[in-house]
Design a protein that fits this description.
Layout (H helix, E strand, L loop, with lengths): L6 E7 L4 H13 L4 E8 L16 E5 L6 H9 L6 E5 L3 E3 L3 H10 L6 E9 L9 E2 L4 H9 L1 H4 L16 E3 L1 E2 L3 E5 H6 L12 H11 L3 E12 L9 H19 L2 H13 L1 H11 L3 H24 L4
Parallel strand pairs: 1-2, 1-4, 2-3, 6-11
Antiparallel strand pairs: 4-10, 5-11, 6-10, 7-9, 8-11
Helix pairs in contact: 4-9, 8-9, 8-11, 10-11
Length: 312
C-alpha cells in the first residue's frame, strides 16, 4: 500500500470553467491521504475559474498574470512542492477512488524502481477507454501523419490507436493529462523544456527520461477521468498552430537535419492540403477554415524562428 502524503499535484489552468472545480474536488475527495499539496497555476484566465479555489484547504493558487504556456507553468508549480512524486493533472481530468492508491503502490514497489513516469487508464465522457499512449515520434511517423497514411496504417504513426489500452505495459510515452513522475527524475531533467509553449513538452520529457535510462509505464488497472481536448477546444485554429509549431521544434531538437527538414517541408506544404481535403470530404467548412487560419499563423511565425530564434 502506498504511504500517505507523498505526492504533490500540479494543475495548470487556462479558462477551464467548471472543469477546474470538478478536478480539484476530485482531488479533495479521492486524494486523501496521499496528496500533500495541490498547486493550481492560473495562466491569466479571464473566466474567473480559479477564484473559487483560493480558500480550499490544501490548495495553493498561483496567478501568473500572463499565459506562460503549459510547460513553463508546470515548472513554476513544481517549484512550490516537496513530495517524492509529482502528478501533472489536466483541469479536464478527475481522480477516481483507486487512481492514486494503485499508481503510487506501483511506483513504490522496488521492482519498478526504474520506472520514472506512470500513466493510468483514462476514461472519457462516454465511458470509453481513451487512447492515451504513444510511440516516440520519428521523422517518418510525422511524414506519414502529414499525408494521412497513419489513418490507414496506424503502426506507421506514433499514436497507438491500434492498441486497446486494456493491459499494463511499458510504453514510450503517456499522455500529459495524467503524468506521474518521480521528483528525482523531474529535477535531474530540469523539468519541462519551456521552448514548447504547449504540446510536445511531455513527449520531449519522456524522450529525455528514456535516454537517461528511465522507463514509462501505462497502468491499466488504475483509472481516472479525462474529457479530452480540454480548453484547447475553445480555440481550434490556435491549437493547430501550437501543435504544428511544437512539432517543428521537437523535430529540429531530436531528429537529424535531413529528417527535421523532411518534417518541415511536409508540415508546411503537404499537410495543409491533406487536412483541407479531409475537411471538405467530411463537409466541414469550419474545419477547412480553421486549418488555413492555423497555418497562416504558422507561416507568420516561421521567419521569427528562422532568423531570430523565437520559439514562443
Amino acid at each position: 500500500m502506498a504511504s500517505s502524503s507523498n505526492v504533490d499535484i500540479i494543475v495548470v489552468n487556462w479558462n477551464a470553467g467548471h472543469q477546474l472545480f470538478d478536478c480539484i474536488s476530485s482531488i479533495q475527495t479521492n486524494g486523501t491521504p496521499f496528496v500533500a499539496k495541490t498547486i493550481v497555476v492560473d495562466n491569466d484566465s479571464t473566466d474567473g475559474s480559479a477564484n473559487s479555489l483560493q480558500n480550499m484547504l490544501g490548495v495553493t493558487v498561483i496567478f501568473t498574470g500572463q499565459n506562460l504556456g503549459f510547460g513553463k507553468a508546470c515548472n513554476l508549480g513544481a517549484q512550490h512542492t516537496k513530495s517524492e512524486y509529482l502528478l501533472f493533472l489536466n483541469p479536464d481530468a478527475a481522480l477516481h477512488s483507486n487512481t492514486l492508491p494503485k499508481a503510487l503502490t506501483f511506483m513504490q514497489d522496488s521492482i519498478n524502481a526504474k520506472v520514472g513516469i506512470c500513466g493510468v487508464q483514462l476514461i472519457d465522457e462516454l465511458g470509453h477507454v481513451s487512447r492515451s499512449c504513444s510511440r516516440l515520434p520519428t521523422s517518418l511517423g510525422f511524414v506519414c501523419h502529414a499525408v494521412g497514411l497513419d489513418r490507414l496504417f496506424p503502426q506507421l504513426g506514433h499514436f497507438m490507436t491500434e492498441w486497446r489500452h486494456d493491459e499494463t505495459r511499458e510504453v514510450d510515452q503517456v499522455i500529459g493529462a495524467f503524468f506521474l513522475v518521480r521528483r528525482t527524475v523531474f529535477e535531474a531533467l530540469n523539468g519541462f523544456d519551456e521552448q514548447f509553449f504547449v504540446y510536445f513538452e511531455e513527449v520531449d520529457f519522456s524522450r529525455r527520461a528514456r535516454e537517461a535510462g528511465w522507463r514509462s509505464v501505462y497502468l491499466a488497472d488504475a483509472q481516472a477521468f479525462h474529457a479530452g481536448g480540454g480548453t484547447s477546444n475553445q480555440v481550434k485554429a490556435m491549437r493547430l498552430f501550437y501543435i504544428m509549431r511544437s512539432r517543428l521544434l521537437y523535430a529540429f531538437k531530436h531528429f537529424s537535419l535531413i529528417g527535421a527538414c523532411a518534417v518541415l517541408l511536409m508540415t508546411l506544404f503537404i499537410e495543409p492540403f491533406s487536412r483541407s481535403v479531409l475537411a471538405l470530404a467530411r463537409g466541414s467548412w469550419p474545419s477547412f477554415k480553421e486549418t488555413w487560419v492555423g497555418y497562416a499563423m504558422l507561416w507568420k511565425w516561421l521567419p521569427q524562428w528562422v532568423f531570430k530564434g523565437a520559439t514562443r
